[in-house]
Amino acid sequence: MQYRVPREQSRLTSQDRAEAAKLERRISDLVNEAYGLTPEEIDLL
Prior knowledge:
The protein has 45 residues and is mostly helical. The protein has three helices and no strands.
């Protein structure tokens, strides 16, 4: 099965993509913090 990007998603601007990447990074940081991961453990991921 091939994944198709919805038409609305294909119209994202570079600014939209940058904002999404920023939010994804923030979520990742919050999850790592919630699990109490050290920088060394994060590097292993």
